[in-house]
Amino acid sequence: MNTRVMKKTSQALALFMLVSILLPVLALAAVHFENVKYDKYNRSVSGSVYSDTYSVGQSVYLTTYASGSSILSATYATYNASTGRYDFRLNWSKSVSSTTYDSVNLNAYFNSVLEATYSVNNSGKKSSPGGGGGGGSTSSNGKIDAVTGSVSAYELQTAFAATNKVEITIKGEKLDLPLSALLDALKKYNNAQITVISDNGTYTLPLSVLNGDALAKSLSAEQKDVTVTVTIAKKAGEDVTKAVYALGAAPIALAVDFNVTASAKGKTVAVDLGKTFVSRTLNVNKNVDSKKAAGVVYNETTKTLSFVPTTFETTDGKTVATLKRNSNSIYTVIESNKSFDDLASHWAQSDVELLANKLVVDGVTADEFQPDRSITRAEFAALVVRSLSLNAVTTNTYFTDVNSSAWYANTVASATYAGIINGYEDNTFRPDAEITREELAAMVVRAANYAGIETSVSSSKQAEVLSKFEDADSIVWAQAEVAAAINAGLVNGLTDSEIAPVSEATRAQAATMLKRFLSLADFID
Predict the structure, then answer these.
(1) Quick one: which of 281, 336, 275, 331 has its CA closest to 308?
(2) Where do runs of H (alpha helix) occur along 236-335?
(3) What burial class does residue 316 get, using C-beta atoms within 10 Å of its C-beta: 0-12 exposed, 13-18 middle, 19+ buried?
(4) CA–CA separation, 204 vs 358, rounded Å?
(5) Global confidence as pTM
(6) d(C-alpha 226, C-alpha 267), whole Å
(7) Cβ-contact 192, 204 below 8 angstroms
(8) Beta carbons within 8 Å of 46's beta carbon, 6+ residues apart
(9) How many angstroms separate the CA atoms of 456 and 462, rounded?
(10) N or C: less crowded end of the chain, CB within 10 Å?
(11) Could you tell me if 305 and 314 are in contact, meaning their C-beta atoms sit under 8 angstroms apart?
(12) 15-72 residue pLDDT tens
């Protein structure tokens, strides 16, 4: 292709892509691809396009995509008077793309409007069903069928032209997306998101978690060359099931590995979700009592399970669990029925047993919870870390009195890193000190803030809330946190007029505050 034609082609492509963003349309059945052949080794694709609604002389423009984003070539189709078809042959050199693709996607534009798509593999067979259909079929309501496991930039632009929440259905376990198109959608909507739907589950990805500059830098690539991959894959093997039974629980959903990565130039990195709790769903294989069911994450290193914030919804006899966490891993759903002999008729029985079934709290023994026993600062820090399902931070450089070999070292480090706990002025944490109700309230409020709940109160509101309690002046340092906890319903007074801020908190009180926090955050039903 000579320089003049290439320039004309580039200008046309820019125009057509702009028009397609502003004016998304549905593919028309009147436009068809015919006799399409793809030679992946010689990097060429040929065939013809037929339309029974367009006449000779109207421009037909084609683009070729692979792996969801790269524009490998662009050309005008030549009208063949003897057949009434527009014939084309597209070639791309190694300098354009050195990758050998198993299949490619074609888009056909008539007068700058996308009228048909087509996906073809190396054997020449169509990779997807339907009239002009191809790699993805985008409708004006923001829904895409990604038959080939990838979505092009154009398809995403068309979908996001209609809504800030795009749904993409996949047939397999992976979906490839062009980072640049996702970032473009984020510029349009600061709350843009995609939901990937598969037979194994769904994954809702807020696009705000994508740091384009950081990802491109970590991959030594430009943003336009980066592919984001969402994976929703069944976890093979019996390790997860064994871990469930080891807890005395029963598995009630598939174990599924949810993951989001970015890749370019043969390199792959994980997408960091930061503090954003993203949602993924699993189908539960029975109707459940949400007080006895729990979403859990599987640790492949320790081969153990731990709590994940999860809610349940049953519609038309089918139960779906929504798991929320700011990290990716292997997830499943379990069912337990735990009780403790010393909780019979105790005021905190229902809250404690609910959290025990969800793996947030443990008994002191298999039969005893000891609800009225005091709880240490380290013990409560561990409970907060579990409630937020935080990843362990293994390096502890925060406090002089936290030994790296202590059972609580990692949880204290995790809670400190997340801003949940602070030490004393002498740079100690005092892990074995019994926690006071004031300290308990402060840590629960910080956990709520980490989960995205706004708890702060104005100075006037703080004074109003605390004025109800005769002993409010005995609060040592956390007046703002205690007032916020009371205002949010996380903490109640021991009586209508007594808050008892310096009293030692009990295990039952700690569990109840955590249960209130988890409910307020919509982390449990």
Answers:
(1) 331
(2) 239-246
(3) exposed
(4) 23
(5) 0.76
(6) 10
(7) no
(8) 36, 37, 87, 88, 89, 90
(9) 9
(10) N
(11) no
(12) 333 333 333 333 333 577 888 888 877 878 888 888 766 655 566 778 777 655 555 5
Amino acid in the structure at residue 291: K
Please report, as a single letter, which amino acid is at residue 246: A
Distance, in Å, from the CA atom of 227 to the CA atom of 422, rounded to the nearest integer, reads: 40
The C-alpha atoms of residue 159 and residue 143 are separated, in whole angstroms, by: 7
Classify residue 318 by burial, with Cβ atoms within 10 Å: 0-12, 13-18, 19+: exposed
CA neighbor of 142 nearest in space, from 87, 89, 185, 109: 185
CA within 13 Å, CB half, 331:
30
- Residue 333 and residue 225: Cα distance in Å, rounded? 37
Distance between CA atoms of 451 and 519, rounded to whole angstroms?
A: 12
131-187 residue pLDDT tens: 333 344 555 589 998 877 888 887 898 899 889 999 999 999 999 999 999 999 999
DSSP code, position 391 = P
Task: Identify the CA nearest to 61 among candidates 122, 2, 10.
Answer: 10
The enclosing H or E element of 101 equals none
Q: What backbone torsions phi and psi does residue 348 show, to the nearest 5 degrees?
A: -100, 10
Distance CA 75, CA 87 (A): 11
Rg (CA), the chain: 29
Backbone angles phi, psi at 504, to 5 degrees: -70, 135
Looking at 189-340, list the stretches that DSSP marks H as alpha helix, in order from N- to C-terminal side. 212-218, 239-246
Q: Which of 453, 292, 439 is nearest to 375 (CA)?
A: 439
Q: What is the DSSP string of 501-512?
A: TTSBPBHHHHHH
Q: Report the candidate in 176, 167, 181 with the shortest Cα–Cα distance to residue 224.
A: 181
Residue 156 has, within 13 A of its CA and on its CB side, a CA count of 26
Helix (H, G, I), strand (E, B) or coil at 488: coil
Task: Report the distance separating Cα 296 and Cα 249, nearest Å.
Answer: 12
Rounded to whole angstroms, the Cα distance separating 444 from 240 reads 31
CA torsion through residues 360, 362, 366, 368, sign? negative
